[in-house]
Amino acid sequence: MYSTMNTSCRVLRVAALHSKREEEYFTMSSDDGDMENQAELEEKTRLINQVLELQHTLEDLSARVDAVKEENLKLKSENQVLGQYIENLMSASSVFQTTDTKSKRK
Description:
Membrane topology: Peripheral membrane protein
Number of strands: 0
Radius of gyration: 31 Å
Order of helices and strands: HHH
Shape: rod-shaped
Number of helices: 3
Distance between the termini: 65 Å
Subcellular location: Cytoplasm, Cytosol; Golgi apparatus membrane; Golgi apparatus, trans-Golgi network
GO cellular component, one term: trans-Golgi network
Structural class: mainly alpha
Keywords: Coiled coil, Cytoplasm, Golgi apparatus, Membrane
Family: Belongs to the SCOC family.
Helix content: over 70%
């Protein structure tokens, strides 16, 4: 899952970079100030900003997933230690020992 997120981030970065280069090209090549080109440029700028916002959101979510995975591993390890501790206590306690009723009757 993490590699898919990394790939998605790379795709978004390339798309944003490509759009930024197009924006620079349109800015330099549109000397006539055509309203249609200006509207296209504004739409591309809006889309670039949206892509960048989504990219940051994806990066934040990816970091959160990593933190949760790390916490999960830590808790699993702690649970194993506690389970072993409880097992040791139970085996050391006479309350939890199995009794052999046949040997007591003799």
